[in-house]
Amino acid sequence: MHHGTARDTTASPSDPASRPRRASPTDTTTVLQPGAGPVRSRRYLPAEADRVLWGRLPNADDRPVLSLAPGDDATIDTVSHEGLLPDQGGDPVAFFGRYGVPPEQVLDDAVAVARTGRRHPEHDGPHVVTGPIAVEGAEPGDVLTMTVLETLPRVPYGVVSNRHGRGALHGEYPVDGRTVSVFADVVPGDDGPRGRIPITEGGDRYARFPLAPFLGIMGVATPGERLHSVPPGRHGGNIDVNLLQVGAQLHLPVLVPGALAYVGDPHFAQGDGEVALTAMEASLRATIRFDVTPAAEAAQRFGELAWPLVETHEYLVPTGLDPDLDEAVRHCVRHAIAILGARYGMEPHLAYAYLSAATDFDVSQVVDLVTGAHARIRKADFADVR
Length: 386
Fold this sequence. Notes:
By secondary structure, the protein is α+β, with helices and mostly antiparallel strands. 14% of the residues lie in helices and 30% in strands.
């Protein structure tokens, strides 16, 4: 196992990292095989077959694969499920080879998961999650904060898929009912690497778009049976909020002793809504810091944390989740009112009015069985509040 050198970080638990290290390699042929290449933290967690779950999320009975003290960070390899799934042939070397990717540019851990990973094809989700990670002393009632310190693309390509009639236009796409997997590569751009998708099948014209890497799945374990990896919830999981880029934090209620955190579903880019079903799915090496706020202090800072709360340098981002998108938005509005009350002492009817005047409510995703909405509350609007 390779260990990198620990480096100083500038963010505190209440202040997201102010100097994002948006990891996009200038060499668009870079491949970060397990243990190879830069590792920011001295604690490194590879995505080995016995350190991941495929299709399910950790529960209270799972043994941690890594234990940390509050305030510790870890560099964690994540593996995208695209190219591994049965509807793509179950062989990532063969799947990506069809798009001209040589075998040495296919991740060894992705190959291992495809060959040896245990996943029920009908009852489990598609996602590969790394963990769980125990945070010492974390207890139910506390809040776990996961701060994204770095995201390094592990490969120079990704996939956008539409399958199972699950996108926003289910019943219309995919037209023939089969899985459509669109290969997207990474190419140089004037302002850094960009994703590229062809305009026509086999054509030589392309749409190019900026990369914005983030982890679609960040969560904590729950009591009871292991949850399916697709629907998000109070535990976090597959929330797919694309603001969770470098410098952002995710605040989650601790639901089991040790929190038992996990990450996965790595993305290179995603539009709000994720309308075709997936983002540009591609593997990342992420460095995350884990902090714990004790229950009494958490009640003052967060109120009752009914749903995951994202925080960036610029925004407070309350979320709302429900199978019905209208109801998800309502949950999000209630969450926003509650967080404004807890953080700034704002009275509910005044918070409601402020949100209507000044806050954007966005659709996080509409394709994960449980839909998501999130709000962007500008922290600068409350800079003078004492």
